[in-house]
């Protein structure tokens, strides 16, 4: 584990490191936090600002919410289906420096009704395409209730995700944030794909 991982956790007064496979299966993938170096790049993109509301799918212990709320001053909602991990997110919130702008929801992503204030969504491969499909349907419903500029961020997307996203008529490819230089090995999946809801 590199130094920035523990330093950021310490600065933000949270505990989000480590992987957790306890409740993963073929549809819901293990908890693994996005590296802080990747989140720094996203925060510096200017695509998430103070007036935005971010929804983090499969939030785990809440790192994305805590970091981006701290760096960009946005408000955040984290959705997590694993009760034990969601409890850890709530414990983090109690001590976190940016906790007041964050809320967590215990529940399944596909059943979560997206608030009409949400205009940024973040995914780090939290679940299979079978779950992504109804999740996107919920996002579209929210968008149609309140049309707004809405961006979806997909970090380290699988080929299956990319193929599926490219077929969505309600999504338009917006941009890509390259993160390959942050890690050894020139992994072509090291990027954040950004789509706009249309």
From TrEMBL:
Its source organism is Blautia ammoniilytica
- One function term, GO molecular function aspect: methyltransferase activity
Q: What is this protein called?
A: Class I SAM-dependent methyltransferase
Name the residues that span the membrane.
Answer: none
Q: What is the superkingdom listed in this entry's lineage? A: Bacteria
| One Pfam family linked to the record | Methyltransf_25
Keywords linked to the UniProt accession: Methyltransferase, Transferase
- What is this organism's lineage? Bacteria, Bacillati, Bacillota, Clostridia, Lachnospirales
InterPro entries for the chain = Methyltransf_25, SAM-dependent_MTases_sf
Which residue numbers delimit the Methyltransferase domain? Answer: 55-139
Q: Which GO annotations describe the biological process of this protein?
A: methylation
């Amino acid at each position: 584990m590199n130094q920035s991982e523990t330093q950021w956790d310490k600065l933000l007064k949270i505990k989000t490191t480590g992987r957790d496979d306890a409740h993963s299966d073929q549809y819901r993938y293990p908890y693994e936090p996005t590296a802080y170096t990747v989140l720094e790049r996203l925060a510096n993109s200017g695509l998430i600002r103070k007036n935005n509301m971010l929804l983090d799918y499969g939030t785990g212990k809440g790192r994305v919410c805590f970091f981006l709320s701290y760096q960009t001053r946005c408000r955040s909602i984290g959705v997590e289906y694993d009760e034990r991990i969601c409890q850890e997110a709530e414990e983090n919130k109690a001590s976190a420096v940016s906790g007041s702008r964050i809320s967590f929801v215990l529940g399944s992503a596909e059943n979560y009704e997206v608030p009409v204030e949400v205009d940024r969504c973040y995914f780090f491969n939290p679940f299979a395409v079978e779950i992504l499909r109804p999740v996107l349907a919920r996002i579209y419903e929210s968008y149609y209730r309140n049309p707004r500029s809405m961006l979806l961020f997909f970090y380290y997307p699988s080929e299956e995700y990319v193929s599926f996203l490219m077929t969505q008529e309600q999504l338009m490819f917006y941009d890509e944030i390259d993160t390959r230089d942050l890690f050894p090995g020139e992994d072509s999946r090291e990027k954040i794909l950004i789509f706009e809801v249309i």
